[in-house]
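I had to read the description of the data format several times before I understood it. Each protein is reduced to its one-letter sequence and a matching series of backbone shape codes. The format is easy to grasp once an entry is in front of the reader. For illustration, here is how one protein appears when written out as sequence plus structure tokens:
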Amino acid sequence: MSTSKCVSFNMVQMSSFQNDEFLGKEFQESIIVALTPLLEKNHPTQEICEFFSKHCKDSPRSTLVIELFTPVVHRILKHNTDFGKYPRMRTFVQEYIQALNCQNDGLKVVQALVKSMHGPGSNCPHPRVLPNLVAVCLAAIYNCYEERKNHDNVNSEDFDQIEWENKLLCYVSMMETIAIADSLFTSRMKVTIHNVSSDQTCGVHQTLLGIREGKEGWFHLYCPGGIACDDDGQLWGVMVIFCFLLECNTTLCVCVCCQVLCAMLELEVVEGHDMKMQMITTLQSTCEGKRMYAQLCERQIAIKEMQQKGGPKKLTLPSKSTDLDLTRMLSSGSFGNLECLSLAFTQVTSACAHDLIKLPSLRYLNLWSTQFGDQGLQIISEHLHKLQVLNLCETPVTDKGLTCLASMKSLRKLNLNSTNLSALTFEGLKEKLPALQECDVRYTDAW
């Protein structure tokens, strides 16, 4: 019997007692444990969604919510094409989100869900995730206001204002996280941020900072390496010019100003010896500035010593990094000792393979959610024979490139999750890679 028929068959049985008020909690959980394995490759039926929604409402802090419902929700958000046809599926996702919101530090748990579903790179391998999340949030916000309006109409006294606000805040927080993860939104916001930065009013500048201590603002999001930065820090440079720092001196403490000056020296964004000396003199005019500048000098000395000894052993490039960024970095010094390199969620392509093969000691390579394809895979397969761990999760590689991995006899761990791997190619790789101990083939035809 096929999996889809099994699901339908189970629901015929379950629909007869799913609304039974006397159904024990343990029995409900047993049903959930039995059902979820059937949903690894199938969407839940409307009856299953209703049953799962009820469990999220009744037992939001149940361990089953995170352990068993999370993979089901991930599949729905990645592959659903129309919530209009399956409204109960959307309701289930909403109730699941509210269950997450009931966990300890719930808002952060919900925001972590969004970040885990959509990579920071502009080329997310699951283009339906953001539209589906937005659809869920908008429908939930609409329902919140409809619920409040209905309570107002009947003058109900059992309306919980605090609970209503917490629920609304959860979805608003999700929308904010979704927006920051969307490169189109952050790109179009740059014009507004630039205009705010150029304003002469201190109060206007303050809107770029976090709303309170510990919270990030636009100033942090667009800094070099930030999730919204796509211009090598040009917009951020506008925000940190002298006029901006001077006007915001009541908000930006001496410590933050010193951090900015140190960052500008370290990133070498300032040209001219005289300007650099003026910045150094400014740093040394305060105790905090002296301490930060001393730490900067220590880091630069350590980097030079490390480069002379063959460079670092581990390295992770920030998101938004490109093939050109990798080329520039590898040409800046010696990296002969580099054993572990993570390019996950960057914008590198197969073109970077010509730089990767210049790393003779490389044993670990993470290319998760990049545009590294078959051509690049063919190149590194011919040269990186010491490679032991390779992560190609959510990359556009196909059987054409994956068959070349057979020559990499040292491979011990291989992640091919969400790639175009076929079952035939997978069987061939298992035969030709004797050292292979672990291979992730979930969400492929070989699964």
User: Anything to note?
Assistant: Confidence is low (pLDDT under 50) at residues 1-12. The radius of gyration is 26 Å. The first helix runs from residue 3 to 14. The chain has three domains: 3-181, 190-307, 314-440.
